[in-house]
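dude i think i finally got it to work??
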Amino acid sequence: MSGKVKQPVVITQHMPATFTKILAEHITRMTGWKCQEGADGMVIEPGNVYLAPGDYHMLVETSGTQKVLRLNQNEPENFCRPAVDPMFRSISEAYGNKVLCVILTGMGSDGLKGSTVVVNKGGALIAQDEPTSVVWGMPGAVAQAGICSAVLPLDDIASQVVKMAAGGAL
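look at this
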């Protein structure tokens, strides 16, 4: 994706704490978008990218007219902390039908329950296809559940995200 993203982007990656800061820096270098580890109480700004820090679930909460990040060390979900499901549930609560989720390669089924909430509230979901996934666990779970707007090769996902975001699908 090129250009300036208008919507905020939140990411949960199953990584230990020592690696999420490095990943945030790498995302900034590779995209030119400001990516940082989320911090508890951080106000979500359009055009910024927030990455769940290792060992913390990252949630989105409405506070007055603002959306803020909340971090916690609640029990792991799907054997993960951070986990995708709590993030997706909270994003759906905060943003309603204005949510687009993407599930990329990964083991297990983390993201399935949260994605189901997003889709049931009118949001959209894109999953990576099996041939381009290293592990088709997570994207396979949502694809096989029949809740995806699209199941695409990795190289086609960015353009679909841009198309859906710019076209008012969110």
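Residues 17-31 form the longest helix (15 residues).
im so relieved honestly
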